[in-house]
Amino acid sequence: MNNFELDERRKTVLLEVVNDYIQKAEPVGSRSISKKHIEKLSAATIRNVMADLEEMGYLHQPHTSAGRVPTDEGYRFYVDQLLNPQNILKDVEDLTRAYEYGNKKQNIQEVLETACSLLSENSNQAGLVMLPTFSNTLFRHIEFVKVGSDQALAVFYSDFGVLQNKIIPLEKEMTQDELSSISKYLNEEFSGKSIKSIRLDLLHRMRNERENYNQLMKRAMDLSSQIFSEEKEDGSLLVEGALNLLDHPEFTADLEKIKSLLKTLQDKTKLVKLLDRCLNYDGMTILIGEENLDEEMEGCSLIAQNYQQGDEKLGTLAIFGPKRMDYKKIISIVNQTAKTVSNLISQKNREF
Fold first, then answer.
1. Which among 50, 129, 201, 289 is least buried, having the fewest CB atoms inside 10 angstroms?
2. Is the pTM of this model over 0.85?
3. Measuring CA to CA, how many Å separate 132 from each of 89, 212, 226, 317?
4. CB 254 within 8 A of CB 246
5. Both 316 and 266 in a single domain?
């Protein structure tokens, strides 16, 4: 970041240049800005202001006879001006109300798939949704079935309706009745909580309440620590509308750039890491150009927000596209979609 402070005139001109470039995808000249500038400044005055902004690092001139285009820092200044509640668009609020109404009968997996499609359709960019990892999945129900003298099959259900089976070792004298009692206890204690919070709860109980457990509860804790054990895991990523990037002139002019970008969207690994990084932050995350930390993505921006159940962050949804995007509209779409998905997940959790 540079150390120059922008006065009101420079701020106004910079915002106008970014707006104009977003709309037209062409370098912006001083005459274009002078026609719409509220202070009716001359083209010469605006040209001087634009030269100052270029020196400060907010604008770039592709070649001598061209107008200016925003740099990453210019976009960053522009976006920071938009991040306040009054910039949520009414038509996006209406869209997400319709989305919520139309998805009442969907399970959570289907809700997230629909959200990914709507992110893409309403932005004409790529929509991304990172599904919850096992740690962020909400526990619903578990059953233990004895399958040998010293083994049990643990049948685990999550809020996604996902079924997981795991064979775990047992003490030889443990009966099916005891296993059924343990299942009942765990379902009553932990249903509706994330695996991550269950692990923390178990750790706390095992450290502080061990002396108060009877034999059955000790066995329940031992089995729980095996079922909810922490394992290396990667989130699954939904991607919709990758080909929308072909509609933007900054990519179609460079075949190698778009091929590299589409490959990144296809293999998903780098995007998963990027969204996983966003999951660590509260509120909205906006990464512009080089802030994406990957060469293939330097010409792009990512606007992401977490969706959650109560205070539990479950995953991240985002729109990914060129730096020259309609940030005001897309910030609103991402913000409202995240709120709608969070409300739907919370509602379905209450209905369970």
1. 201
2. no
3. 28, 34, 20, 11
4. no
5. yes
